[in-house]
Structures are given as structure tokens and as C-alpha cells.
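Dear colleague,

As promised, here are the two records you asked about, laid out in our usual form so they can be pasted straight into your sheet.

NAME FIELD: protein one
SEQUENCE, THEN STRUCTURE:
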Amino acid sequence: MSVRSDPESDTTSLEASYLRTVTIQNRQFQHYALENRIQFVPIDEDEVERLEIQHNVLNRVFDDKLIFPPMRNPKNILDCGYGAANWAVEVAENYPECEVIGVDISPHMKPDETPENLWLQLDDLNQSFTYPRNTFDLVHSRLITGGINKSRWPGYLRDVLKVLKPGGWFQMVELYYNCQSDNGSLTEEHALREWSTKYLSALEEIKDLRAPLRLNTMMANAGFVDMESKMIPLPLCAWSRDPREFEIGNLNRQNVQKLLGNLSLYPFTERLGMALEEMLVLVARARSEADDPSLKAYFPLLASSHTVQLIGLLIAVQVRLYRKEAPTIAHLRGFDTKEDRPFSSKIWYASVAVVIEMLPSRMISDESGCRKKEVKELLFATLGLRSIISS
């Protein structure tokens, strides 16, 4: 990801290829995103309006908490896939002392005016991050499954982990676009179920739209700990007897009516080869069903926050680095029992791997000048593990 690590540095000039748009069925798309199979959603005013409605819905779902983890004064925040920048703008306004950076492949929907502490950058989240390690207190990622390539997920999560400060947080919100029913009344004959099946099928070659169901596992594998997550049924209209849920459904109704057409136009007609008339009929039927309170339809919304926690080895190494001492082989051997590992072996393994990779060779030595590679080998042997990290 070729993005500036210093917000005060010069921004990358926008190439004409990124700004070029193409009109399909009277809707504007970013040509670059379509050509490179990055995302397939319109970037016009109608989509900007929908994203604002969606942002207001999610604010109500999360009781106006823009940031889930317990953070008082974050200094650096990264927003991955900012869209129309609704979340990024609001966070920058609420935390004026914080530097907020937003990244997206499309610059077309960003607002004309933004807070002085917000920088919106152009880049592809499918490329590796180039920010320095330990840069951000919080990384925010919301509704990006349609833009992240299937093979990119492990690397994306590792990149997020890398740029977070020790003790920093990763906040993620995703929709699983497989429509469900709270009373089980949706069947395969319903248009909503057909819409979901076709949407998942249209993108399954390059996008993993089922990734939200495995976020906890993928994040644990990447090295995140202290995970908190929950699945929230997001009603497609006002059908709940609970006053709060009824209000959320009522707010979400307009978003859903637009979403069913906006998200599916290109995938259905260009990737599945559906005739426009057939696609419009399906969307019309799906909109009607989404507006039917008796079906109690919803999309599963998955929200999670995860931290990079300082564990035994990491704490010890950080303390010695703070004292400008190089941790010795004997020091590393001090963490060789299961009692010293507060998490599962897989997470411990990942955490050890992260901290060893973070340390430059000159910071690790023993009395005989042992190299970083040798320290790695001995550390993993001591822990009874085989290193799979390249030296």
C-alpha cells in the first residue's frame, strides 16, 4: 500500500486512471475498481446518500459509540475503506487532538470539506501496508468484504496487527449478506433468499463474502487477543416488538431499499449475465419482501474489537529495550513454561513471532554475540515449537 506515513508529507498525485468513471445502466462506477476487480458498487450521489443513511443506522445500533474499545485520548487512527468518510469525519470532529487517516480506492465520494485533523488517502487495501510498525492506536474497518480479495484476508489482518501500537485496538463491523428470518418464514422460493444466493455466487470467485462468519478465528490466527464480538440481527424494516429494534428497522428500511439495487446491479448484470429487466424484477420483489414485517427479515451484522496485548515475553523485552539493554538468551529462556503463556499455544506462537520480527538484530544478543536468526531458533526450540518465520 503506497500511502504516506507522515500526514504532513505531500500526498500522492491522483492519476487519471483512478479518477476515470464509467456509466453502466445510468449509474456511475469507478473504472479502475471494476477493471482491477476491487469493488463493484456505484460511486455516485445516490450511493453517497445511501452510505450516510447506513452510517446513521449503525450509529443507532451501537448507541452512538463510534469507538467500541475503552480509549480515552487516541492519538492516531486509521480508517480502512472510508467510503463517503462519514465515520472518519465524525471521529475527527470528536477527537480534535487525534490524527485520523482514511484510505479508500475511490476518491469520488469523499466530502468537499473535512476537519483539519483528517487526511483522506487513495490506495488499495489489497496491497500491503507501508505504514511503520506501531503507528496507530486504533484501526477501523467497516463493511469492506466486497472490496477485499479472498486471498488477501490473512495478509490484511497481519498488516493491521503490524501497524497497531502495543495495546492498540482493531475495530471491525461487517454484514453477512445472506438474508435470514427471525421467525423462519423465509424459504428458497423468496426473492430475498434468491438475491442473497446470487449476490454471494456472483463474487465468490474473488471475494469471500462469508468471511464475517470466521472473523474471530482469522484474527486469532493473525495474533489478536482479548477478542470481543457479537452478532446482531439488523432488521430490514420495522418489524420488532422491541421499541429500540423497531426504531432501528425503521431507520434501516430506506438503506435496504437502496442497497438491494446498488450492490447487485453490476454483479448480477455484468458477472452473472442477467438481463437488466430480470435483475430489476428480482430487486423489486426483494424490496417488497424486505418491507414485509411478517417475514421479520434481517442481515446478520457482526461487530468485533480486538487488541494487541502485551504478554509475558513482550513485556520483558519491552522493559529491557526501554532500559537500552539487549535481551539475552538466558532472559528469553525465562519464559519457557506453560504457566508463563496466558493464552492458547497458537496465539502465544503468533505473539512470539510478532515480537521477534519487531526486534532489529542489534537488539538481540548474548554474551557471544548471537545473531537474531540463532535467537529465533533457540527461542522456538525452548518453547517446543518449530519456527516458520523466514530469517
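NAME FIELD: protein two
SEQUENCE, THEN STRUCTURE:
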Amino acid sequence: MSKTTLAIIAGLSAAAGSAATAAIFANRSQKKEVATSTTSSPPTSTSPRPPAPGPLPHPFKDLVSPVNPTGVFQYGFPGPVNDLHPTLSTTSSFDRRTRNPYWVAEHITPESLSANNADRRHSVFVEDESIPEKFRAKLHDYFRSGYDRGHQVPAADAKWSQDALDQTFLLSNMCPQVGEGFNRDYWAHFEDFCRRITNHYPSVRIVTGPLYLPRRDPQDGKWRISYEVIGNPPNVAVPTHFYKVIFAEDGKTGGDVSLGAFVLPNAKIDNEKPLQSFEVPIEAIERASGLEFASKLPSSRRKKLCEQVTCSLLVRDYAERQKNLMGAAPPKKSDGRFPLPQR
């Protein structure tokens, strides 16, 4: 695959409440420089020849340092610390600087999603006490912030146990998300899409997390990263975008894995916007996040998710989804299955 250059245009229009422009990951083909050799007759001039290379410097192992920089560890390791945190329903790595997760991973199956042993009404948002107090997000950080406490792993994916459901309400599983038009709408439909993948695959793994992507300044044309920070004092960064990397497994040992990678702006998105308009190469998310997701998955086992199933949303009313999460099934509009793409 040719290298993919990240080019993001995620600006909000001047009108209040207007939809954000989708993130664009543009592929630029890079020209390969071809080394050429030329032959020429030996010079006839008597100009001096370049000096012969001198002896190589001594290897570092032979040097004795008069200083000990690692001695600072006697006072403590500065970091970074990733706060790897497994729970019943998630595994995550936490970013102490932004007070948001780097990533949160989950595993869903047809069996786990069919179980209904939990009730969201018994769950409450809680601070994650496994993270040091001065680094974790606080409940009051979100108070009157204008943002939802947006699940990275949705509660609806953990109804197989009340304890598992409760753990999705840890603030280490949250990021500030635009509510109306995103967290309660397009993003929720996207989460439903991920669950419906289990209609075709026996095992689906999903990694979700925030991104902080650059925008081009219209004044000077330079690219800058800028994001809001909420809380008092300001603690929690508001991501500009969110990603999901989806691994749909065929259930066979060493079998094929259908990969899907998506980046959505943290802004209102029209429900009519095609999901595939947010599909990106997985390498683009890796470069933007500094993370690697599939380094041990050989290309021979990879398939493109959106070539195996139709990547589209099934839009449902938010109130109906909430009732369904609490045990009351909404009116059935569709069986939720993907039509297979025409080939």
C-alpha cells in the first residue's frame, strides 16, 4: 500500500448548529526516486584525490560516562504511564494528559449481545479510582460543559451482566462528545451498525478512541491542532474526532479477518450521510493516533469489511433505542441484517 498522507478538513460552518465537514484522508501517490548511475572517463586533471576515510570512532560501549542521567529514577519514573485497565467488558489505555482514553477495546458475539441480564437504569456514571486522582476525569468536569459523557464502548454491548454494564459507565470509558446530532444520533447508529456485524461474523472486536486532528488556518494556510478543554480547572480535552477500528473474525483458527476503519468528526452529522464517507485506511488512524492496531495480522488474512458487508446505518429514534436498552423492544422497522453487496 502506498503511504497515506493525512489531510483533515473538519471545519464547522459559520451558522450555529451546522454540521461539521467530514474528515478527509487524502491519498497522495508518492513518486519514487530512481537512482541513476552515470559513467564518465577518468579525469585527466591532476587535482588532488579526496582523502581516505579516517578510523571509525570508538563504539559507545567503550566509553565511560562521567554522568548518570537515569539516576533521576530514584525519585520516580516521569512517564508516560498508559494506565492499562481491563474490566469485564472492556480493556483500555488511559491518557493522563487529556484525561481521555487512548483507546478502549471490546469483544462482542451473537451470544453476548443476545443476553439481557442488565438494566441501564441501575447504572450510574462514576470516576475511575484506578487512575490517580490528579489525572482522572471528574464528574464535575462535565457539569454544564455542553458535552455528553460519550461512551467509547457502549453500554448496550454489555447487557450480558449488570456488573459488566456498570463498568462501561466509568469515566475512563468516556470522552466529551457533542450530544444532539452525534452521540445521541449518528454515533449511536454507528454503534448499532457494529452490533449488526455479528449477524455475519461469530466474533467482532472493536477499538474506539479519540483523535485530535489539525485544521488549516484560513488566514495563513498553516496546519494547527486546537481543541476545547472542559472542567474547573480545565482538565478534560474535547476530541476533534473519534475513530473505530473493527475486526470481524470468521471464527476459524488462522482465518480471515475483515477490517474496517472509520473516523468521524465530533460534531453534528446528518443521518443521511453515508457511513462509507468516513471510511479511512487503518494506517491513517495509526499515524494520527501514534498507535498500531494490526501489526501482527498478515495481509494474507485481511479482507475489507465494506467489501464483505454493506456499510450503512439503520437509523432509529433515540428514545426507542433507550427503551430497548432498558428491556422494552422498540417497534421493529428492519431485521437489521446487511444486504450483501452486489458483485
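A couple of things worth noting about protein two: Helices lie at 110-114, 139-142, 162-167, 179-183, 186-196, 282-289, 305-308, 318-325. The CA atoms of residues 293 and 300 lie 16 Å apart.

Best,
R.
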